[in-house]
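Appendix B, example 12.
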Amino acid sequence: MGERYDPLETLGAVLSALGLAGILITEGRALGLGLLIIAFGTVVWKMGEMRRELNEKLESLRAELESLKGREGPIDG
């Protein structure tokens, strides 16, 4: 429940929803444009997901590096 999402994920979801709404509101007359917006929204959504995962991995690597730095202190002395 407390999971944070990247702003790009949110933007992508909103774009995809707007594309779908555009198709439904125009009763299919704007199918091409709606599908283009949905595709663009899906790509943006995936970019945000990848960025969030990368940031999580970087944070865990930083924490691991800090723990390794803490271990090296007494050994060197």
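The mean pLDDT is 88. The helical segments are 7-25, 31-76.
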